[in-house]
Amino acid sequence: MQSLKRGIFWNFGGLYFFYFAVWQLIFTFLPYWLKGPAGMDTTTSGLVFSIMSFGALILQPIFGPIQDRLGLKKGLFYFVICCILFLGPLFQWVFLPLVGANQILGAVVMGAYLSLCLNGGVGVVEAYNERSSRAYSFEYGHARLFGSLAGATASFVGGIMWAKNTGSIFWAMTFCAAVLFVLLTVVKLPDDHMAGEVRDEQGNAAKNEPITREEWLSIFKNRSFWGFCLLIIGSATMYDVFDQQFPNYFASFFSDATAGATFFSRVVSVQILLEAICMLFMPALINKIGAKTGLLIYGGILFVRVLGCAFINTIPMLVFWRLLAALEMPFMLVSVMKYITRVFDKRLSATVYMYGFGTAKQIGLTVFSLFMGNMYTALGFHHAYLLLAALIAVFVIVGSLLMRSDAKTEQIAK
C-alpha cells in the first residue's frame, strides 16, 4: 500500500471520486426520473440505456487508439469533462421538454448524449488513469477505490437531494465536472509523456516503439481477446442490465415509491462502502490468484445474485443479496486491468480495454437492455431474472474456456 503515501495518488483518487459520483447519480436515479418526471415505461426506459450503449459502441473503438497515441496527454479526458458540465442545464431545459413532446426522440437524444459522458467516456477515464498508475508508480486498484467511495457518498447524498428536489441531482453532476476540470488541470505530465511511455507493475519502462498496423491487428487474432469479450458480456454487461431496472423492482416492495427509492439509496451506500474496503486488499489478492480467476469469481457471484433475486420475496433478503455486489465490483475492476496489461501489449492497453471491455460490453448492453426491458414487461421480474441468470452462465463459461491464464506470465500473448 505504498502508493497511498504518494501525493500524485491522491490527485488521481480525486479524479475517480468526482467522475464516479456522476456515474452513480445517473445509474441510481435515472431509472426513477425516467419512470417519474419523464413518464416512461420499462420498454422506453430500456431504449435510453440501449442508445447509451450504442453510442459507446461507436465512440470507444475511436477513443481507444486515439488515447494510446496520446499517451498521457489530457485532450480526451477534458472532452468528457466538458460534456458532463452541461448535464444540469440539459436535463432541466432540454431533455424533459423533449421527452414530453416525443418520448422516442427524447430517449434517443438523451441516450446519445449520456454515452459521451458515461458509457463512452468511462473508457477514456479508466484507460488514462490506468496508464498513469504505471507511469507514476502507484497501484491502480488503490486509486480506483475512490470511485467506490464516490458511489457510496453519491447514493447517500443523492437520496436526500432526490426527496427534496429531483432536478438537483443533475446540477450536482455539473458541480462535479467543474471540480474534475480543476483536478485534471493541476496534474503535471512526466517529462516522457510525449513519447507515451508506459510502465509495468514493477515500475520498469516498457517498450516505447510506435505501434504498427500489424501489432494492432494482432489483437483480433488472439483467442484470449475474444474469450475476454464473451466473459465481459456475460458479467459486466449483465451486471448493468440487471441494475438498470433493479431500483424499480426494489421499490415495488414498498407501498410508497419515494420511500423505496430513498431506502434503496441507503442500501447502495452501504454496499459501495463495503466495496471500497474490499478494494484495499483486492490488488494483492488478484496478484496471488490471477486476474482470470478473479474475473471468473466476479461472474460467479453475479450469477448467484441474479438467480437468487428470482426467488426472493422479502425486503431483508433482497437487501442482503444486493450487498453481495460489494464483492463483485472489486474482483472485476482490478482483474480487468491486470488481465489486459499481463496478457496483451501494454502499449495497446487503452485499445484493448476500449474494444475488449468497453465495446464488447456496449454491444451486449445495446442488445440486452432493450431485450430485458421487454422481458420485464412480458414475463415479470422473477421469470426475467431466471432467463438473465442462464445467459450469464453461458457467456462466462464459454469465454473462460477461450482465455489463457495470466497467473504465471505477464508476457505479450502471441
From TrEMBL:
Its main location: membrane. The keyword Glycosyltransferase does not apply. The keyword DNA-binding does not apply. GO terms for cellular component: plasma membrane. It is a multi-pass membrane protein. GO terms for molecular function: lactose binding; lactose:proton symporter activity. Keywords: Cell inner membrane, Cell membrane, Membrane, Transmembrane, Transmembrane helix, Transport. It is found in: Cell inner membrane. This is MFS transporter. InterPro entries: LacY/RafB_perm_fam, MFS_dom, MFS_trans_sf.
